[in-house]
Structure formats: C-alpha cells, structure tokens
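Sequence design from tokenized structure. All designs in this work follow the same two-part layout: the structure record, then the generated sequence. An example of the structure record is given first.
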C-alpha cells in the first residue's frame, strides 16, 4: 500500500525536477550563444564560404556571395564579397594594417595600426552586413559585434542545416544610437548554431514591411574551425586603376 507521505515525497521530487528542467531550458539559449562567442574568440584560424539573400518587395530577391579567411597569429584576414551584378568589395589585413578595396570606385583605403577598426566597422553597407557578423566575432574584444546579442533569446528546438545538427535560437535584434539609446532597425532574428562546433551556419533577419511586402535577409555559412590556410588564402592585390 502506497502511503500518503510517500506520494507527497514523490510529488515534491518531481516538482523540483520540473522546475530545474524548466530553468535549464530557459538558460540554454543564452548558454549556447555564449558558447558560440567563446568559440569564435578562441579560434586560431577560420574559413568559410557563404551567401546573403536579400528578399524585398513582393517578390524581389538579390543574392550575393562571400568567402572569409582568418589567422589570429600572425594576423591575416580576407573577406572577399561579390555582389549580384558583378560588384566586389574586399577587406584584408596583415600584421601592420587593414585595407579595403571597392570595385565600383577602384579605390584602396589603408588603415594602419592602431586605427584599423573602421576597415570593418564602416564596411557593412558594401557587404550586405557580412563584415559586421562573423569577422566581428573573431575579434570580439576589438570590434563590437551584435550578431549574437539577441534580446529575448529562446531555444526553438533543433534542425539540420547542410546535414549538420543545429540549435535553432530566435529573438529580437536592433541597432541603438549611442547618444540617445534609441532603438532602430528592430528585427526578428533566427540563428542556427552547429551543435558540435558552435559555429553559426545560418541567420535570418526579418524587418517590418508594408502589407503584401517582405523584408528579409538570409545569411548562410559553410564554416571551418581552425582551418589549415596557406599564404595564398590571404593574398589580394587591388587592380591598378
């Protein structure tokens, strides 16, 4: 015969287990995001290929492509962005400076140390924001990165991306004016983070749009952690004007 005291003890135990499980689930989204931040900050090298798909209006779509190569020490970096229609924008770095080149203008701009942050920080528009995502995570202490700073982050479950098991996390992102702290560019964000490597494989950003219209950006990655890269991976020479 089951006594009342035994039933009470079991119920209490199950209640504690439920609360602990609920708390663990509530914390898991931020834990995954922090693990991803730490992973990028500790990589010795990194490489990827990717795409940015910009969906807007009722049915318009622009698709761009890019590749990234990174070495922490000695410092080398290359982001080669190709825009639909033939334009190209390149950011590269060596131990002494960062550099940018834009095909439209044919202009190379050099950013010697220590004033090299604008090379990435001012390149968002010319790279469909690709420069402000993974590259800023690789130098987390130097560049301000909003890619993984998601408000109201929730773990939405798991999903395979490119055959890789991923955590799917959703939330809200925005840009903030420093002087007024006013939020602008508010958007819904969904991230797919590889469950094994904790590298980002996909990101969608959905902006407010007029009825019958859409405004969505989808960025995808094929990333490699601690990739073996030779000097040619970082080599870029701006064409002569």
């Amino acid at each position: 015969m089951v006594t009342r005291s035994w039933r009470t003890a079991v119920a209490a135990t199950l209640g504690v287990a439920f609360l602990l499980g609920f708390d663990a689930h509530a914390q898991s989204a931020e834990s995954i995001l922090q693990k991803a931040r730490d992973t990028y900050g500790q990589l010795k090298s990194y490489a990827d290929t990717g795409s940015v798909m910009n969906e807007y209006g009722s049915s318009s779509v622009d698709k761009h492509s890019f590749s990234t190569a990174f070495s922490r020490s000695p410092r080398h970096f290359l982001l080669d962005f190709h825009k639909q229609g033939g334009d190209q924008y390149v950011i590269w770095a060596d131990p002494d400076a960062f550099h940018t080149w834009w095909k439209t203008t044919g202009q190379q701009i050099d950013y010697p140390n220590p004033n090299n942050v604008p090379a990435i920080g001012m390149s968002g528009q010319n790279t469909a924001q690709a420069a402000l995502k993974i590259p800023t995570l690789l130098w987390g202490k130097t560049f301000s990165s909003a890619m993984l700073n998601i408000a109201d982050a929730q773990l939405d479950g798991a999903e395979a991306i490119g055959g890789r098991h991923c955590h799917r996390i959703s939330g809200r992102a925005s840009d903030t004016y420093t002087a007024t702290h006013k939020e602008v560019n508010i958007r819904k964000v969904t991230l797919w983070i590889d469950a094994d490597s904790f590298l980002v494989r996909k990101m969608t950003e959905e902006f407010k749009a007029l009825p019958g219209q859409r405004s969505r950006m989808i960025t995808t990655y094929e990333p490699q952690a601690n990739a073996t890269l030779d000097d040619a991976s970082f080599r870029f020479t701006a064409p002569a004007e």
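Helices lie at 4-42, 118-121, 134-138. We note this feature because it recurs in several other targets discussed in the main text.
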